[in-house]
UniProtKB/TrEMBL annotation:
Residues 7-66 form the HTH iclR-type domain. This is IclR family transcriptional regulator. Keywords: DNA-binding, Transcription, Transcription regulation. It comes from Nesterenkonia sedimenti. Residues 67-236 form the IclR-ED domain. InterPro entries: GAF-like_dom_sf, HTH_MetabolicPath_Reg, Tscrpt_reg_IclR_C, Tscrpt_reg_IclR_N, WH-like_DNA-bd_sf, WH_DNA-bd_sf. GO terms for biological process: negative regulation of DNA-templated transcription. GO terms for molecular function: DNA binding; DNA-binding transcription factor activity.
């Protein structure tokens, strides 16, 4: 949690926006997460909608609004994504496979940084690619530490099970074998922000024949180490938490 500034209305508004890093939330969910009184949350959320810092989706839930995107663009490139370049290159070279960073946006996960294997058969995922949250080790990682309601919602139609996500939480990493695409395997680990929330997933992916049917056994250690390095970067530079923030613990 961020330290309070002493300006109550600002601190409470920031609490509401922080809660929405995990995705859409109802008024009741915002009250539960922030611990604020329902009338206070309703009043502040309505004001934030008016100024386009928040919006409402088709189900009436609150979501991050377009004004924050506009301000983020004005601030320049995402600091964590820029700093992550050397980490992804090192991970690619250590594993021989393409490496990526994903963050969640609604019901999709977006590749925000990547380092592709330069030659040979590879899993090519360009920056900006939108992939499903229903399959793949990065989707597992981005969903595994969600609260119960979002976990249940995220599992609808997913190619992984609650047991798989329990294993991700226990081990601290996820793996997939042909979940997203036949013949492709991947290993992912969580990147956490200063508050401990999962804000992104770092991954490697490539042909099943190279990663084997137990890619986690082969590569989990180096992927987890890369994720920890990225986590340390975020904690040294808290502003980067907002650049990749989509999940809370």
């Amino acid at each position: 949690m961020h330290s309070p500034s002493g300006i109550g209305v600002v601190d409470k508004s920031v609490m509401i926006m922080d809660a929405l890093e995990a995705g859409p939330a109802s008024l009741a969910q915002l009250v539960e997460v922030t611990g604020l009184a329902r009338p206070t949350v309703h009043r502040l959320a309505s004001a934030l909608v008016h100024h386009r810092f928040l919006n409402r989706d088709v189900r009436g839930r609150y979501v991050i609004g377009s004004r924050l995107t506009e301000l983020a663009s004005a601030a320049g490139d995402d600091q964590l994504v820029t700093a992550a370049g050397p980490v992804l290159l090192k991970l690619r070279d250590a594993t021989g496979e393409s490496s990526q960073i994903f963050r969640r946006q609604g019901n999709a996960r977006i590749c925000v940084a990547s380092a592709e294997r330069p030659v040979g058969l590879r899993d090519s995922i360009p920056v900006g690619t939108h992939l499903s949250m229903r399959a793949g080790s990065a989707a597992q990682v981005l969903l595994a530490w969600e609260d119960h309601e979002r976990l249940v919602e995220g599992l609808k139609g997913a190619r992984f099970t609650p047991t798989v996500l329990a294993g991700v939480r226990r081990r601290g990493w996820g793996e997939s074998l042909g979940e997203r695409e036949s013949g492709v395997a991947s290993v992912s680990a969580p990147v956490r922000g200063p508050s401990g929330r999962v804000i992104a997933a770092v991954s490697i992916s490539g042909p099943l024949e190279r990663l084997t049917r137990q890619p986690g056994r082969k590569f989990a250690g180096v992927v987890v180490a890369a994720a920890q390095q990225l986590t340390d970067m975020v904690r040294q530079n808290p502003e980067a938490d907002h650049g990749l923030g989509e999940h809370r613990r």
